[in-house]
Each structure stands twice: as C-alpha cells, then as structure tokens.
Write the structure tokens for this entry.
Amino acid sequence: MTGEFGRVVRAEWTKFWSVRGTRWSLLIAVAVTIAGTLLLASESNTDVTQAGQGDDDVVAISLRGLYFGQLVVITLGVLVGTSEYATGLIRTTFSAVPGRSLVLATKAVVLGAAVAVAGLVASFASFLVAQPLLQSNGYVAPAYPRPSLVTEPVLRAIIGSGLFLTLLALLGLGLGIILRRTGGAITALVAVTFIPLFVAEPGTPLLSENVAMWVRRTAPIAGLAIQQTRDRADAAIGPWAGLGVLCGYVVAALALAGWLLSRRDA
Amino acid sequence: MDALIEADGLTKRFGRTTAVDHLSFVVRAGRVTGFVGPNGAGKSTTMRMILGLDRPDRGGALVGGRSYQSLRTPLREVGALLDPAAVHPGRRAYHHLQWLAQSNGIPRARVGAVLELVGLTPVARGRAGRFSLGMRQRLGIAAALLGDPQVLMLDEPVNGLDPEGVIWIRGFVRSLAAEGRAVFVASHLMSELEGTADHLIIIGRGRLIADTSVADLLGSASDGSLTVRTPRRAEFMPVLSAAGATVSSNGTDRLSVTGLGAEQVAKLAADRRLPLYELTPHRVTLEQAYLRLTRDSVDYAAGSPPPDDAGKAP
C-alpha cells in the first residue's frame, strides 16, 4: 500500500504488534475458544435410544466456545482504543497523523485483520475438534449426518463465527474510543453481549417468549445467528440478517467514535 | 528571519477558566525562543493548540504558514516533545520510533540515527516502561528529531534530566538553532533558559506579559547600580552623596550606589585615599529580571506568589 492510508496502516500495524499484550490476547482468544468448545461439546449429548430424531444444531454446538473467545477479543478491541488515552500517547499519534478519522480507520483495519485471522483459526479448529466428540456423544446418522466442512451452511457458520469475533473486537474499539476508559468500555460491552445471551436464551423462564425473541433479534448477539445450520422453531433471525444487526452496531459505534474524535480535544 | 510559528489571538477556555487569553506571538527561525511562565500559565495548552490537538475557542496558529491540520507529513515540519511519559510501557524504544517514522514516510535509517544522536542506541531494544524519566525525555527528543524538522517545540525538556543531561540539552538546543531551525522551548524556570534562549515569550495566566529579546530584558531590568565595599563606609557615604549619588547601606561594609559611574566612584575614593575592597557594576540574572517583570505585571498582585495552577487544563 502506498499513500497516506498505507503509511498509517503500517504505523498502526507496528504499534499493534510491538506490544506483547496484543499477541497474547490473540493466542488466548484462540485457546479459550477451542477449550470452551471442547467443554460444551463434551457436555452435549443426545439420547441414543432416540436415534433418528432430534433437531440439535451440531454445527452451532461445535462453535459455542466463541462465548469465551468473545470476552478476550472485546477486551483486546477496547484496549486498542483506550490504551493510548491511558498513557497520553494519543497526542503523539495525533501530532504524527492529524487526520483523526484516518487514525480510527487504520486502527480498525489492523485490529479487524488480526482478529479475523485469529477468529477463523479458532472457529475452524473448534469445529474440527468438536465433531468427533459430538459423534461419540450420540450425534450420529441418520438424524445427525456427519456435517461436511465444505457445504454451504457449515462453511458459512464457521467463517461467520470468525467474522462475529472480528465485529465484536471492532465494537470494542469503537466503544473504547467513545468512553476513553478501559474498565467502563469492557463492562458496558460484556453487559450488552452476555446479559442478552443468558436472559433471552430459548427456554429460560426469565423473559416471556416474545420479549426474548425480540432481544435475540435486536441485541448485538443477534450476530450469533450466523452459526445456525438448521431451521429451528426458536430461531429468532436469519444468519446473515443477524450478522447484519451486529454490523449495524459496529458501524454506529465507529461512526460515533469518529465524530467524537474530530470534535474533542486530544 | 522567517516566522515559523505564528500564534494569532489564541484563546482557550476550560469551563469557566480562561487558560489562554488572546495570545499572539511569532517564533522565528535560527534562534531559541523561550516560552516562560509559572506552572499553569497556559504554555502546554498553547503548544497543544499549535499542534492541532486542542481546538482554540478563538484565534489560530500557523506552522510554516499552514495550519497543522493541513500538514500531510507533520513530523517532517514540526518536532514536538510534549510529555515524556506518553509512551506505551510495553513497547521497545526502537518500535516506538519505527511506527512514528512509518506514519510519516520517514526512512527507517532515521530511527537508528536519532537513537544514536540522543545516546539511546544501547537501550534501543529496551521497553520504554523500564526507562528512567531522563531516558524517556531523550526518547521524546529522538521522536521530535525523527523527521529532521525545521521547527522544534519542547515542553520542559530538562525535566528529569541529570546535570549532565541538562548541559547536553542546552548545547543541543543551541546547535539546532545555529542550523537555522526555530526552537521553541517552554519552561517554568527562567534560570533554565539562561544562556540558551535568544528571545522570550513570557506569559502569565494565559496572557502575554512580554515578548522581548533576552538582551533587552536584561538591559531594562538593570538599574545601573554599583556595589562598593570599603572599611571606611561612614566617611565615604557623605562624599558620594555630595557628588550626586544615591547611596544605601545595609549596615555592613557594603554600599549600593546609583547615579555615578564606576570610574567616578574610584576617583572619589582615590582622591580621599579611602581603600576600596570591591567595586562592581550590579548585574541582574535573567531570573531576577523575570521576577521584576512579573512582579510589576498586573497578573501578579504585589506580595502574592504567582498562582500555581490557575488555568491549568483539567
């Protein structure tokens, strides 16, 4: 890449990689996603006496470790946004690159690319390690034919899970810049991603079915719908529409962050 | 001489406090311009506005005739040291300079060159968090020099430096100006600028108190008095008064004489065979001249010390 954008991307890339915390965060995100998947997949079983029935989504189950990985990428995203405020480095950054939207855009590109790679590694690995485990737990044909990695819904669910992590990291970046406080931004994001996950899960008695459905359609976790590979009655929103909802939050957060950056004193 | 920094009516308010109040000045090439005022006088806020970091409520500033925001490779035009603590503690010094160089398309070779220049080559691979304040100060100066800029802005550059470092930075600042660069150095201690600055912008509570050359300030602050020491003070005082001098004594053998030149005082003493132990023109230091100036200024009411934190940015 040449030109101003390329220069600043290279600079942000150097910043991103020259701190141990970011390298470790990405490794940990991959590790806890796989570990979480193994844990949840080993707890999932189906009654073998009812073989031939059931509508569990074995692909989605094999990607559930994302619940854990998302915590790490949210933290990473927030820190990319806030750490320069904590040290005062943000002033050095803006005196080197006065275009503040340019700084935000290049941070998003670098963070997004790194988390996308880590997210794809995590979701492919999760799927591959979970499948044998699920089969030994009773998820076998004919009700549960072995899912093929390269068929449309499976590949979409896996790649989409990597994108889901990427989008959450970007949401963290946006909120980090908006709030400029690490603790506040992480707390806020964990609240908006995890609380709906628990209170609106299908079958929980906390919310009425209609409200729970609405929450799953409109909260950022609507993006998890990208993992659905079976048409189930409790599906709140289509896979891509769900990811689109999360995209909406990311675009809104980054736009607000960019607007605030251009107005605020550094 | 080229005016490389032009501030025109810069004004900045934080809530109800006016940190910088209609401040106008120019910083010219080829000399060291000291920017002096007590802590909280608005020096750092002014520098931040010049760098486009804080938005002025009124007025504006130009660097090399252009607004900072319009510069595409600002590090090649202006090098600034604002806060030496503003480094990521986990990042190695080399990488800190590397990303700065990349952001402005500065060749990588400059990173090694500026590290060498400030004497940090042996610790280039060390993490900035383990650096002493003095080492961070040097790292900040290396960053400011990275783009070989014509304008340098240094906010309290000798803070945290050991005596050797202070001497180093003074010589360094002089040599940068001698190369034709504009060097703008903020300090709350006038004594730090003694022997370094050619020109002074003095502010208090965000307002301009003086915009003067160092020579003019010293000249105006000097009252032309002489210090005279003689063991026969009581005999000499009436002689001096009769010759038209104003004489004061603090009770020792030391007299302060105004209104006569050193030659006349020496001749009067010789005529009466009075021994003189000392006869020296009274020289003011830059510090004394500064204190006299700020004491007279409306910003510092008589008897009260300069405010410490008035107008300080939150």
In short: Residues 236 and 272 of chain B are 9 Å apart (CA to CA). Chain B is about 30% helix and 25% strand. Residues 163-178 of chain B form the longest helix (16 residues). Chain B has two domains: 3-214, 223-281.
